[in-house]
Design goal:
mainly alpha; single chain
Length: 77
C-alpha cells in the first residue's frame, strides 16, 4: 500500500506554530547573551581589583615631571 502525501498550499505551509518554540529560544538566548555581556563588563571595567581588569591610569598632575636621576652606578676613586 502506498500512502499519498498530503498536499498543502504555500500559505498553510508557512504558518507558524502556535506554541512559538522559536520565539522562546530566541528570547532565552538573548537573555543569556545580555547576562554574559554584563558579567564580562563587570569583570573587566567595573571591578578595578580584577586580575583581568583594565589597569588604573596615573593621576594627571599640573606640575612638570622632574628630571630623571642618572642610572649609571657611581664610581669611587
Amino acid at each position: 500500500m502506498t500512502e499519498r502525501a498530503q498536499v498543502v498550499s504555500t500559505t498553510e505551509a508557512r504558518q507558524a506554530s502556535p506554541r512559538r518554540l522559536n520565539f522562546r529560544v530566541l528570547v532565552v538566548s538573548m537573555v543569556v547573551a545580555i547576562a554574559a555581556a554584563a558579567m564580562l563588563y563587570y569583570a573587566v571595567y567595573a571591578h578595578p581589583g580584577s586580575p583581568i581588569g583594565v589597569p588604573e591610569q596615573p593621576a594627571a598632575t599640573s606640575e612638570p615631571a622632574a628630571p630623571a636621576a642618572p642610572t649609571t652606578p657611581e664610581t669611587t676613586p
